Amino acid sequence: MLAVLINALPFLLYRLTSQRRQGFLSTLSLPLWGVALQALGQLFFPARIFNPYSSFLIYWFAAVINWMWNQEFRARKIATGAGIFGAVCVVVLGYGFFLQTIHPVAPQVLPTSPAFAWLCLLGGLILSAWGLIQPGKRRELWADKTGTVALLRSPFTGNSLHIVSEDGHEALVSQSGERFPVCNGIPVFLEQKKLTGSNRKYNQLYEIIGGFYDDVQRVACALRGISVGQYLWGYLRFLEINPGDSVLETSVGTGLNYKYLPRGTRLFGLDLSAEMLTNCQANLRRWEMDADLFLGNAEDLPFANDSFDVVFHVGGINFFNDRAKAIREMIRVAKPGSRLLIADETEEHVKSTFERIPVTSRYFKNRREPVTAPIDLVPPEMQEIHLELLRDGRFYALTFRKPSSAMPNLH
Fold first, then answer.
1. What DSSP character marks residue 335?
2. Which of 30, 36, 138, 145 has the greatest number of CB atoms lying within 10 Å of its CB?
3. Could you report the per-residue pLDDT of 290-313, keeping only the tens digit for each?
4. 58 and 206, same structural domain?
């Protein structure tokens, strides 16, 4: 068990630090910690069970493959890093082969194993500290986001909010004394321990799958023989987005849809899952995009009326506690005349896929009622209400337009 822990810890440390820096240099964190911790294991194991130099290359290979996967194997982004790794491997293996064939009793030319392990430990500490203290992009203070703060309201009272800073920590505060902390650059408008019903149940699922949600999407698309862009564009094409528009996605998840939206827009995203938002932040850094993210409930949006040019939701609403309220909230924060989009899986997809996958099956089996598109929950005063089935009936896209004339307060 100790050996398993020693071999698993490097991947945990790599996961914690590589999200903040995603350049090729970040791949060194895994082999450095791998060798250092395996050397520590030698204090407990009498037999020599690993070679530090081969272990370094094996761990590094795993990190490089993971890095290339995250860069979607795009030649322009991975060419230099992959070339450096390949060149190092060729030099090291070639040098070792040369010593064994030309000079079988070669002198010691590499650091001894303990010395190499200490070097790896020092390098791992430096690289991890650098990644934690100096993230890849300077986090913007919310005190500087005056335009966004002006849009924010308490999701419980509707009171306007202002930013305060105490001991280096920011928070959004209302005149009535409500306080919403900003954690890791994300304003927090809910306490996850207070979630109830379906919101609590399915939030637990997203906290589990958040780290590999995008990977599952890529593999699923590959099995269907289509690209992720084609898969997502099936419903994103219904949006009406112009340059400079403010775009809000509720239940934004890992932000995968953002990558395929037109550039030049102001992006906002809200989600119930902190894990999904953490991965969304990592994706935004990788794609060199910006978005203001919020941890909150789509049934109680923390925004003022008529705030956004585009409002849409993809995935999740099927299992909200109160779908009708979530739809009313989307309408409330959308500007008059906006077209809204709600998209999610159909009952056919839930039964044929989610109920059969081991990780998700217990969340979807024995449901009280089947999944239905919430077209009957759209207020009748909405215009151009349209429901379309996609992907052979496994997905639906529901669109409607908020009237341009004044509407009653839907909060």
1. P
2. 30
3. 999 999 999 999 999 999 999 999
4. no
